[in-house]
């Protein structure tokens, strides 16, 4: 009997799901114990390795999330908000740790996640890469050092299939900038300019989203003043950075007390 952490992965046919299956099954320190997809998905019942076009991994894709989550120590979840809420409730019921990469959740959905985190450890981040989580700290510090003569804009670009905007990462960076300035993002966020918008309001934090092609994920935080501009940039070229971060978070989360944690906690950045 192995005592390696047993990891279940949700949405295994997805862009992130497939990357996670590969990283977890290649990692000798952990065991891939569950491969979950939505009911009616054509992969359900097939070996997950074969469904991905590779060698068998001796694990069938299941739509029985309750059973797979109950049998795991930790579930890694990059799917969609409503699915993630249901997985969080299952993880809480079974005391399974939960790593959430899903973005696009509204305030009510985030409150439901916080409720599940009263019963199990949840690591949630709009971006699981080391680089972006370093950038978050940097953005907070630069925003704290500058006054409102510097207009803050967050610009992000992603592939044509992304369904939410601004990206989870853009919102993390916006939150960090607002924290640095000592304001609430909800009071200063300017999202979706169109038409006669009027001049920019001093102190606002603006968001712009570009969608196209196969862009993995690009984020700029711009501090623009009269006569100078600071740009902090992160470019992702490989989804492996998110996936490896999520596996690190999963190993870290096993055995942690109930609560909601960030990647900064996992990476020891705070
Ligand atoms: N936090 C981070 O570092 C990152 C977060 N993401 C986020 O992860 C999420 C997924 O992204 P992608 O993999 O690109 O999307 P995708 O559309 O390729 O994959 C989503 C998968 O979830 C599955 N799914 C949906 N509902 C389900 C359910 N009820 N049960 C089981 N499976 C279900 C779909 O069938 C699909 O396979 C998005 O919210 C994205 O923004 C993506 C990359 C990095
Ligand atoms: O949907 C994606 O692809 C990504 N989503 C995350 C986000 O919303 O920030 C992280 C990364 O940028 C890729």
Written account of the structure:
The protein is an alpha/beta fold and 270 residues long. The chain folds into 2 domains: 6-124 and 239-267, Rossmann fold, CATH 3.40.50; 130-236, Dihydrodipicolinate Reductase, domain 2, CATH 3.30.360. The protein has 10 helices and 11 strands. α1 links the parallel β1 and β2. The model has no long low-confidence stretch (mean pLDDT 97). Bound molecules: 1,4-dihydronicotinamide adenine dinucleotide and the ligand O=C(O)C1=N[C@H](C(=O)O)C[C@H](O)C1. 1,4-dihydronicotinamide adenine dinucleotide (NAI) binds at residues 10-11, 13-17, 36-38, 41, 78-80, 83, 101-104, 125-128, 168, 242. The site of the ligand O=C(O)C1=N[C@H](C(=O)O)C[C@H](O)C1 has 9 residues, from α7.
What would a concise description of this structure say?
Its main location: cytoplasm. The protein is of the alpha/beta class.
Chain-wise SSE layout:
Layout: E1 6-10, H1 15-25, E2 31-36, H2 48-51, H3 65-70, E3 74-77, H4 81-94, E4 97-100, H5 107-116, E5 121-124, H6 130-145, E6 151-158, H7 168-181, H8 185-188, E7 189-191, E8 205-211, E9 217-225, E10 228-236, H9 240-253, E11 259-261, H10 263-267
Parallel strand pairs: 1-2, 1-3, 3-4, 4-5, 5-11, 6-8, 7-8
Antiparallel strand pairs: 6-9, 9-10
Helix pairs in contact: 1-9, 4-5, 6-7
């Amino acid at each position: 009997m192995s005592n390696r952490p047993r990891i279940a992965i949700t949405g295994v046919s997805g862009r992130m799901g497939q990357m996670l299956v590969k990283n977890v099954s290649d990692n000798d320190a952990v065991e891939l114990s569950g491969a979950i997809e939505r009911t009616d998905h054509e992969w359900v019942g097939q070996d997950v390795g074969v469904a991905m076009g590779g060698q068998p991994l001796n694990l069938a894709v299941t739509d029985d999330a309750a059973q797979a989550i109950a049998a795991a120590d930790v579930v890694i979840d990059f799917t969609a908000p409503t699915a993630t809420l249901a997985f969080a409730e299952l993880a809480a019921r079974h005391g399974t740790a939960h790593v959430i990469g899903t973005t696009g959740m509204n305030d009510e959905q985030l409150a439901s996640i916080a409720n599940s985190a009263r019963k199990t450890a949840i690591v949630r981040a709009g971006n699981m890469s080391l680089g972006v989580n370093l950038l978050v700290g940097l953005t907070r510090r630069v925003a704290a050092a500058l006054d409102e003569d510097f207009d803050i804009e967050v610009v992000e670009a992603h592939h044509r299939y992304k369904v939410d905007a601004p990206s989870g990462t853009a919102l993390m960076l916006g939150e960090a900038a607002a924290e640095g300035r000592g304001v609430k993002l909800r009071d200063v966020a300017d999202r979706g300019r169109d038409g006669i918008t009027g001049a920019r309001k001093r102190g606002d934090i603006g968001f712009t989203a570009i969608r196209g092609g196969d862009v993995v994920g690009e984020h700029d935080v711009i501090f623009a003043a009269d006569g100078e501009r600071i740009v902090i940039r992160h470019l992702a070229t490989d989804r492996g950075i998110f996936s490896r971060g999520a596996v690190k978070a999963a190993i870290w989360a096993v055995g942690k007390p109930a609560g909601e944690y960030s990647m900064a906690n996992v990476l020891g950045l705070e």
